[in-house]
């Protein structure tokens, strides 16, 4: 099979599933690409990756971007309209390719929010102008800075084909297929969930937004049609827990301007202030319950007729954190993938793999 990298480049985190050969692997990194250069000590860049856009040698200041790791306290808000066409987005995509280690010719699939992807007035039903603009952007020149020479490195990969898919909704294929898709799996999935009705919902709880996607499954060809009028994006997600945590910790301990990794705090329930470790499990639990309750209340009207759905897929990084939300709906229709933050990217990979297998079976070229 052709080398393929699926890059679910969200506002908060970039989830990557890549395949070179038969095996697929996955990793995630923060979507934190900032114009400018990181701290330089003794001529070396410390604690971050630096990329040059368009110019390999002697780039101008507006062509240099620094990509920060999760441990760095800097925050980035990528929720602006032109993010898919931005230089920041290009840097994130190429960093995903560099980290994947793919070499030679490679196909890539990136994503945009479902609300931006679909355009009912378009003959194709998709926002073709935006997807074309994103493809032009991410396939543009981008060079990782060599820490020793200070020059841009020539990539070891060459993008052969680039596609854009919508975020969230392809998680349906993550629950339909195993890592090795088969027709038998698809038949069993359709028989179990779509024998009575063919509507489904995907609830994608991300870092800064939550998408509720209502769609219709087409059993004849295992495709779907999104009802964009019934679907909705809400500006609330996992990072709202971080905001609630910060406010309550500052209030309880009478401190300000704290710097902490919210994900570490959620996992450990502990914070170090002035060298003293404090157990804040109760604060974490209250913050999760508060934000989870808000999300639950916001999505409830969209899912009011849940009996119409053959299956409801809860995915995104928040699906594991806010499990109580999914628990409010019948377990017979609810599906939460094993690793929900990768579910859309993994679903795209499985869909693409099944598609290529079908072409090979017909003697075509994927």
Chain-wise SSE layout:
Layout (H helix, E strand, L loop, with lengths): L3 E6 L3 E7 L4 E7 L2 E3 L4 E2 L2 E2 L2 E6 L10 E5 L18 H14 L3 E9 L1 H4 L10 H11 L3 E3 L12 E10 L4 H6 L6 H11 L5 E7 L4 E9 L4 E4 L5 E3 L4 H15 L8 H7 L1 E4 L2 E4 L1 H19 L9 E7 L1 H5 L1 H4 L7 E2 L7 H19 L5
Parallel strand pairs: 1-9, 9-11, 12-18, 18-19
Antiparallel strand pairs: 1-2, 2-3, 4-8, 5-6, 7-8, 7-10, 12-13, 13-14, 13-15, 16-17
Helix pairs in contact: 6-8
Structure notes:
The chain is α+β, with helices and mostly antiparallel strands and 366 residues long. It has eleven helices and 19 strands. Helix 6 (239-253) runs antiparallel to helix 8. The model has no long low-confidence stretch (mean pLDDT 90).
Could you give a quick summary of the protein structure above?
The protein is 31% helix and 27% strand. The chain is built from eleven helices and 19 strands.
Salient structural properties:
single chain; alpha+beta; 5-stranded mixed β-sheet; globular
Oligomer: single chain
Mean pLDDT: 90
Element-level helix/strand string: EEEEEEEEHEHHEEHHEEEEHHEEHEHHEH
As residue ranges, the low-confidence spans are: none
Say how many strands there are. 19
Q: How would you classify the helix and strand content by structural class?
A: alpha+beta
Helical fraction equals: 25-40%
Q: Round the Cα radius of gyration to an integer and report it.
A: 21 Å
């Amino acid at each position: 099979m052709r080398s393929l990298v699926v890059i679910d480049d969200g506002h908060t985190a970039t989830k990557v599933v890549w395949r070179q050969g038969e095996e697929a692997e996955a990793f995630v990194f923060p979507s934190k690409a900032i114009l400018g250069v990181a701290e330089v000590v003794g001529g070396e860049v410390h604690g971050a990756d630096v990329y040059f856009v368009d110019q390999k040698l002697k780039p101008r200041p507006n062509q240099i971007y620094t990509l920060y790791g999760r441990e760095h306290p800097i925050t980035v808000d990528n929720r602006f309209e032109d993010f898919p066409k931005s230089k920041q987005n290009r840097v994130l995509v190429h960093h995903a390719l560099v980290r994947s280690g793919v070499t030679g010719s490679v196909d890539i699939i990136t994503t945009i929010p479902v609300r931006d992807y679909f355009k009912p007035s378009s003959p194709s039903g998709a926002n073709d102008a935006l997807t074309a603009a994103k493809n032009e952007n991410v396939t543009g020149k981008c060079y990782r800075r060599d820490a020793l020479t200070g020059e841009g490195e020539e990539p070891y990969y060459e993008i052969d084909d680039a596609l854009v898919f919508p975020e969230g909704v392809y998680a349906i294929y993550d629950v339909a297929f195993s890592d090795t898709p088969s027709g038998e799996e698809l038949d069993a999935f359709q028989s179990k969930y779509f024998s009575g009705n063919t509507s489904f919902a995907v609830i994608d709880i991300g870092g800064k937004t939550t998408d509720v996607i209502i769609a219709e499954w087409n059993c004849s060809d295992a495709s779907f049609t999104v009802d964009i009028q019934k679907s909705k994006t809400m500006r609330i997600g996992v990072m709202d827990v971080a905001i609630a945590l910060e406010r309550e910790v500052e209030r309880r301990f009478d401190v300000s301007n704290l710097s902490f990794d919210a994900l570490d705090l959620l996992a450990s329930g502990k914070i170090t202030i002035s060298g003293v470790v404090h157990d804040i499990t109760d604060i974490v639990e209250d913050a999760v319950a508060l934000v989870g309750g808000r999300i639950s209340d916001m999505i409830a009207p969209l899912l009011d007729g849940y009996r119409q759905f053959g299956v409801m897929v809860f995915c995104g990084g928040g699906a594991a954190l806010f499990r109580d939300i999914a628990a409010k709906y019948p377990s017979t229709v609810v599906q939460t993938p094993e690793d929900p933050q990768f579910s859309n990217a993994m679903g795209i990979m499985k869909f693409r793999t099944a598609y290529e297998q079908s072409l090979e079976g017909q003697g075509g070229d994927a």
